[in-house]
Amino acid sequence: MARERDGVTSKNTHLVLVDGSGFIFRAFFAIPPMTNPEGVPVNAVYGFTNMLSRLIKEHEGQPMAVIFDAGRKTFRNDIYPEYKAHRPEPPEDLRPQFDLIRQATDQFGIPAIELPGWEADDLLATYARLVVEQGGNCTIISSDKDLMQLVREGVMLKDPMKQKPIGLAEVEAKFGVTPDKVVDVQALMGDSTDNVPGVPGIGPKGAAQLINEYGSLEAVLEAAPGMKPSKRRQNLIDHAEGARISRQLVLLADDVAVPTPVDELRPCEPDAETLRHWLESMGFSSILQRMGFGGKARSPARHKPDVSPASSGEAEVEGDMVPRSEAPFGPYETVTTQEALQQWVEAAYKAGFVAVDTETTGLNARTAEIVGLSLAIAPGKACYVPFRHEGTLEAPVGEQLAVKEALALLAPLMADEAVLKIFQNAKYDLTILRRAGLEVITPLDDTMLLSYAQSAGAHGQGMDELSRLHLDHTPISYDDVTGTGRNRIAFTQVPLDKATAYAAEDADVTLRLWKILRLTLPRQKATALYEEMERPLITVLEGMEDAGIRVDAEELRRLSEDFATRMAEMEEGIYDRAGRPFNIGSPKQLGEILFDEMGLPGGKRTKTGAWGTDSRVLEELAVQGHDLPTAILNWRRLAKLKSTYADALLKLMEPKTQRVHTTFQMTTTTTGRLSSNEPNLQNIPIRTEEGARIRQAFVAAPGHKLLSADYSQIELRLLAQVAQIDPLLDAFRHGQDIHARTASEVFNIPLEGMDALTRRRAKAINFGIIYGISAFGLARQLQVPQGEAKRYIEAYFERYPGIRTYMEAMKEEAREKGYVLTPFGRRCYVPGMQARQAAQRSYAERQAINAPLQGGAADIIKKAMVQVPRALAEAGLKARMLLQVHDELLFEVPDEDAEATAALVKRVMEQAASLKDVALVVETGLGDNWAEAH
Known about the structure:
alpha/beta; Alpha-Beta Plaits; six-stranded mixed beta sheet; disordered N terminus
């Protein structure tokens, strides 16, 4: 395959080692999807081949080898079984590329070396030691931070993407220590990606500070007992063994019996003719030309056979890898004929991807009509296809394509697995296009979710905000083209030139965002979140929204009347307490009653001069024992339930189907939880009479049952796991009543004969702690004096000190990094940790404590939502998933399949994720309405 040159084994040897496994994943996620002429994905192969072609030229005459991982299990798993245990399987499109990458190495005549039981990093460490001992030097082609411990005289790293040398100065800038101390810093800080435990609450800066002060990990651990009392000191003591294990995991072995001795690694040059044929078979025309072979590789019309970033206005693959397109935003094309649209379709086939955006008559995807559609295939290259523009007398509209004929042309493209369809908020566009007649759209990417998976809570995920943030570009606004206020016109009346500039720019921006966000996804360690949860959920949720859920209109009317009657009775009592009638819904009049006429303490005026009467003000007054604020809160609660559910559901119900169709919001929370609107089903009270009445109005279709599947105490289970609270872990293992067990532990009361009141108090503490509850909040909830609530919390932390340790660690992590991580690696950004106002800081701290738990629960149920529909289909069961509310999934199930479906759903949900020490438990129920099932 290659012609060897004479070996070079003298002390002048410069050995070039390529971290093959590390580069494969970077190339896969950095380079847009592309396929070879046979339709096999090759974007990672292209990036790898491009790198090899450059390295051979740069290091002509020098020995070279590519080092690969031989498998996932190594000696480190014997030391710590959890090491890298939660790493996801390689993406489907990457798997066929591994063999092709080894082919590429062989075609270039470069040895490919791997060894079972050892990581590529260990082989790299060993080769580096051997060549230096022989008097030579070594360049390792990698940007892996774990390899920075190898940098020393004679050993240098080089980033293959940025073409940037990594020497002593760069390592110190990265870790704050010299390379020989990198392993000590890594052992302290741990690595969530590889499941290296480290010491909780110690980040990169803190770890470097300790190592620089004490000299080594062992010296730090020995000195810990004598340090000033602090959370960090206690963590160093409690997790000393974890730190020592972490050091064993991150320390690279440099004494491996390498399969190929150093002196057998020789400079090789590829056999030109063999390599040429292989490059042609891959369709890599730009590499052929760069290597001087000339000619063009064969390329099919419907695939992207060759993507040369340099030729498309982006940085080189080996360079920065961040798109740097200078293409202007527009002008764009208005497409009004089948011939013109067909040209764009063919261009999309050739590109291998296309950004798509729809223009509609409204924001509700179930009722809005499509007005037009825009496509983008490269930065600055986009078009708008109008369908229903009416124009005005001053600007009449000429020829337009009909929706059906345009979608008929687009349908094969949208269904073609070889062409990626890119959206911003894909779920909305999928619903619009499906209702217009376009049923199959696959595969797809969503820039909104690409961003959300790596930056939840850091900023908004709307296209305009993302454009300003990543592209430094402010798109044309809707107001710019339609006007505002009374002068606003419908989008159907916008002149086509303005509509094109606005709509096609949206597709252009979406494409440019995709090129950037796809690159940052692996850098932010969010690939698994996006690929395994967020992206698959798009179609799952779209199907749930389409299914909707049936409601009982008569029950809703009865409920509305009952609420109205009870509110009228409450109003009479409120007037009696106030001493006169007033408008209860008026904050101004209520403030005057409470603070001017009744003289209640604690009133504060707003900027407008009126008294503040929000729920927090009223709750504080209620805790102090004042009756009127309590009555107002009860009235407001009932009024909200009446307007939000009893009345709103009747308005939202589709008369023909008697179903309501909520819209799930995928990116509005910091923690990854879904929210919903029109109707909002997340805020129905769970354990109140009114909440049960509302759930009774959600009913199964004839011949069906509703199936509720609810994770039991999932956030408490996560707390027990991440904080390692032994009594809680023991209680969950033995199926004990967790709240009774907590009451027994905290209040020193035997489990036998536990009274309901004590258990209720323990339950309030258990759930309150998750949300960082204060003594004031617990006192209000239990209706006890604040001092008594404070004693309860202190007793709780005395019995479970690990929970306080966890809470402090999360607050420290949020202060240091700006975010906290869920157990599954989701970043939950927590703004406000450095706020000047104590109230803002306190709120941020509660977020930092709760986000890993609430976010972890959200991750688990999202995994389940992806897996359950597949399992139902494989089992031939016809249940439909209708709703997701907090930790509960609701299904509509044919009567005859009810029991089998309940058993399958329970099994799949309980196995959707694995917690090391705690089992997930799902409770199921069946009924004719939601209340019965719940």
